Task: inverse folding
């Protein structure tokens, strides 16, 4: 047998011997494992955990020991519960607990632990319906005992596999979880633990290092705790921790960095489409999404169950602040916040707040506003106390920038006390509010308190709620001061016992805002000593300052109704006033309803009770059609339109050359007909209907009695369905239209009954020698850009009838007497011309007058006197102010085969014509009479 074969045989023997030895050792280990009493381990584990946590422990699975490959105790399905907790849900569970121990200590009552592995542990923290968070067992004493048990030099390896921490809030049925926890490290007097976990869909790393790093103060164990995704997204504590105290004492530097807080706020379940729908409608959403980077640094101190962040510096887009924050939980959670912002940009935070809001209260699937229904009725926690003191020099809200905001508030016993809230608002205004925010089981949150505000412009202040209010006139919306009790809930905002002063106007009463799908504001107010003339007087003062002549409350195409088009809130005010002044007249009582909604507004049921009359008014404006539409009803005993004009004398400068048309008379340059453009702008831009009745109407020095008008305005045309008034002691009834445009004009039919001819002629042509009662009916049409063109293009047909007519300077009886005493033909001419102008004649008159191109012509007006008949023909040229009239008289009282006649002509200027008489027929009669004798 060769040497190689001998060596193989020897090797085989060795292997057999080694195998026998190994089998013997394994057998010994198996026999030794059988001597391990796992029942003692079960009782020992239950005792230790209960002693450390105060919890009941249940081991649902079996306890086993394995000596290979290393000595290990396996405990399956461990559960921890509160002793008096009725719920069957465990506070903590571990699917399997693997404990590494030294070999020989397994045979003793206290195994020496060298490592612990927890497979799929779940730690559950609950906020019960009573508001308490049951996690007191997970405390500092447990941590200290674990470290102490490890010994000063001993090290226990720790391994957590697929762990989970669950926070459950039973009050609002929500939960937050940290999942997939993977930790590895060493537990000793200087622990080092690191690993990963997942929170809200975000993967994070964690590192705890309590080795000597030189960062701790004297006598403290070094502490470095870091939770991070990368260098731009992390939370870190760097300092020291005193483990000798009964409660943890930490002194460290705190830093928080987030590249985009909005991204970190969203979980995998976030309904991004709903958030986008909501924030897209917000005027405060930035036009472009920007990163919401957050940088916080502070001094961190923890002692006596209290955390304090001091010297805190906070930075975010558009926001910078310094301050402090403290958090304590000894008896109940208490938070104190004290921050001073240099600037605060709400826009940057609006989407983040909305995201958190939707994630907390939204339950899909849902309709457009279903998330509102998910808000709990009692969202204010009863187990938290909060003290809040915040100031900011500048706050940005959409396009608005507000200054000097201050909020001091306190949360305690499920109620928020607003000690003070102030802010500077547009219009040099300041707003102050204080009160209590409480909650009810049905009505939800509500605020009860008081508010006060004052400033230079009420109009600018109202622009906070609706920017279209800037289109309102500033008259009557200037300096103001308001004070009121205030109630706010999800359904309404109510002001009561309110006092409001706008300029010299003082109001008091109450107001309610209802937050319905279509919001509305209602007020039922009783006031006293109100001067409505305040608004007109303020407007007059502005006109005087600007040296302009205008009409108060002018309604035409120049009006801007954008504020009403944008109005989305319905307004309904009912007002009763004791003692008032309106139209410069004191009254006893007034009442009205004021409303505005969906492009429509108005004042109706208006009553002004004066000692001698009751004025009734109604006005509505609707801008929902192609053109604004107004409806006006006015009923009063008297009205002076001068009330609505600027101060007397304003704009009354002497007319410049060319303002009036010269009279066509040699050597005379007198102005008579205006060439100023006729303003028909009041016909443009609006449609409407009008029903106006005034006992005595005064307008620019004219007085109209029993003025009544029913009219319709449409497409620049005012159609008079009924227009009547008394003037010149008679009554006008008019039908027809007035139209605007580039060349305005009128087209009317009219009747004037029983008027005074003296008043008519003295007003129109300055003749004061004719009196009597006159009735006229006819039509009138004209157009033009000024009074001169209206007169030159006028066309009218008039039927004329006068009775009890007295004409001074026309003595027809004197003519008869002169003829009767005349002896010769020459006496007739002399006597007639002498007597004709020395007396007066009474007569009646009827006929037709035609007006065209500024000239009045008559084909014949019959004049009837006792035994005398006259026929007036000719024309009056109003443009040139000249007349050419001829009257043919027949003396039927004179006995003659042929009736004697006389012709009288008036030729020349209307106010001073030349009189020519033709007495040839009378002369012939006298001559014949003498011959016959």
Result:
């Amino acid at each position: 047998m060769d040497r190689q074969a001998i060596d193989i045989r020897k090797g085989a023997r060795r292997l057999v011997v080694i195998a026998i030895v190994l089998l013997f050792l394994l057998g010994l280990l198996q026999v030794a494992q059988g001597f391990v009493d796992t029942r003692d381990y079960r009782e020992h584990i239950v005792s230790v955990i209960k002693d450390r946590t105060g919890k009941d422990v249940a081991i649902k699975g079996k306890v086993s020991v394995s000596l290979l490959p290393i000595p290990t105790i396996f405990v399956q399905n461990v559960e921890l519960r509160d002793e008096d907790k009725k719920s069957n849900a465990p506070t903590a569970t571990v699917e399997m607990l693997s404990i590494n121990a030294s070999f020989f200590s397994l045979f003793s009552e206290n195994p020496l632990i060298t490592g612990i592995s927890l497979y799929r542990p779940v730690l559950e923290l609950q906020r019960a319906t009573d508001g308490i968070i049951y996690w007191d067992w997970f405390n500092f004493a447990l941590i200290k005992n674990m470290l102490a048990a490890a010994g000063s030099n001993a090290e226990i390896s720790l391994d957590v596999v697929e762990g989970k921490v669950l926070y459950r809030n039973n009050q609002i049925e929500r939960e937050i979880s940290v999942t997939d926890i993977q930790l590895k490290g060493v537990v000793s007097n200087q622990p080092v633990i690191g690993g990963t976990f997942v929170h809200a869909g975000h993967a994070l790393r964690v590192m705890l290092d309590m080795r000597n790093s030189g960062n701790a103060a004297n006598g403290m164990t070094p502490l470095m705790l870091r939770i991070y995704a990368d260098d731009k997204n992390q939370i870190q504590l760097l300092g020291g921790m005193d483990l000798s105290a009964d409660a943890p004492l930490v002194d460290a530097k705190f830093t928080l960095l987030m590249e985009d807080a909005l991204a970190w706020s969203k979980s995998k379940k976030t309904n991004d489409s709903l958030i986008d729908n909501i924030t897209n409608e917000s005027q405060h959403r930035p036009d472009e999404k920007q990163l919401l980077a957050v940088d916080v640094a502070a001094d961190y101190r923890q002692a006596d169950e209290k955390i304090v962040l001091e010297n805190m510096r906070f930075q975010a887009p558009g926001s910078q602040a310094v301050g402090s924050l403290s958090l304590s939980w000894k008896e109940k959670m208490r938070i104190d916040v004290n921050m001073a912002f240099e600037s605060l940009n709400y826009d940057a935070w609006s989407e983040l707040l909305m995201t958190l809001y939707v994630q907390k209260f939204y339950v899909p699937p849902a309709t457009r506003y279903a998330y509102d229904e998910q808000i709990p009725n009692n969202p204010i926690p009863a187990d938290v106390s909060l003290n809040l003191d915040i100031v900011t020099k500048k706050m940005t809200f959409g396009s608005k920038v507000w200054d000097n905001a201050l909020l001091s508030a306190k949360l305690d016993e499920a109620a928020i006390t607003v000690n003070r809230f102030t802010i500077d608002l547009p219009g040099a205004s300041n707003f102050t509010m204080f009160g209590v925010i409480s909650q009810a089981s049905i009505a939800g949150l509500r605020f009860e308190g008081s508010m006060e505000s004052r400033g230079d412009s009420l109009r600018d202040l109202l622009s906070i709620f609706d920017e279209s209010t800037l289109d309102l006139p500033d008259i009557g919306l200037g300096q103001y001061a308001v004070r009121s009790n205030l109630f706010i809930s999800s359904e309404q905002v109510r002001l009561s016992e309110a006092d409001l002063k706008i300029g010299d106007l003082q109001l008091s009463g109450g107001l309610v805002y209802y937050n319905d799908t279509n919001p509305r504001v209602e007020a039922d107010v009783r006031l006293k000593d109100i001067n409505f003339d305040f608004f007109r007087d303020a407007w007059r003062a502005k006109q005087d300052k600007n040296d302009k002549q205008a009409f108060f409350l002018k309604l035409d195409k120049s009006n801007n109704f954008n504020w009403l088009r944008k109005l989305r809130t319905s307004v309904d005010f009912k007002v009763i006033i004791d003692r008032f002044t309106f139209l410069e007249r004191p009254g006893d009582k007034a009442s009205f309803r004021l409303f505005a909604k969906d492009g429509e507004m108005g004042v109706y049921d208006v009553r002004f009770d004066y000692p001698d009359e009751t004025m009734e008014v109604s006005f509505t404006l609707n801008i929902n059609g192609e053109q604004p539409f107004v409806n006006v009803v006015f009923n009063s005993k008297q009205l002076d339109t001068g009330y609505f004009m600027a101060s007397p004398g304003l704009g009354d400068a002497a007319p410049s050359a060319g303002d009036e048309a010269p009279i066509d008379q040699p050597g005379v340059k007198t102005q008579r007909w205006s060439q100023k453009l006729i303003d028909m702008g009041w016909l443009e831009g609006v449609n409407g209907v009008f029903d106006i009745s005034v006992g005595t109407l005064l307008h620019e020095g004219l007085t109209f009695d029993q003025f009544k008008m029913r009219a319709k305005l449409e497409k620049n045309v005012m159609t008079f369905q009924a227009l009547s008034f008394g003037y010149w002691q008679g009554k006008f009834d008019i039908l027809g239209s007035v139209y605007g445009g580039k060349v305005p004009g009128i087209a009317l039919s009219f009747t004037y009954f029983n008027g005074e001819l003296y008043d008519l002629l003295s007003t129109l042509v300055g003749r004061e020698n004719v009196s009597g009662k006159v009735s006229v009916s006819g039509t009138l049409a004209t157009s033009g850009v000024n009074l001169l063109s209206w007169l030159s293009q006028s066309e009218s047909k008039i039927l004329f009838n006068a009775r009890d007519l007295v004409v001074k300077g026309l003595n027809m009886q004197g003519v008869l007497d002169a003829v009767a005493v005349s002896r010769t033909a020459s006496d007739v001419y002399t006597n007639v011309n002498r007597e004709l102008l020395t007396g007066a004649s009474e007569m009646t008159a009827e006929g037709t007058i035609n007006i065209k191109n500024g000239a009045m012509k008559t084909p014949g007006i019959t004049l009837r006197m006792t035994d005398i008949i006259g026929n007036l023909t000719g024309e009056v040229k109003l443009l040139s102010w000249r007349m050419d009239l001829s009257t043919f008289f027949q003396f039927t009282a004179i006995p003659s085969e042929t009736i004697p006649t006389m012709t009288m002509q008036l030729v020349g200027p209307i106010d001073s014509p030349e009189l020519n008489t033709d007495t040839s027929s009378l002369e012939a009669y006298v001559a014949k009479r003498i011959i016959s004798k």
Residues 3-34 form the longest helix (32 residues).
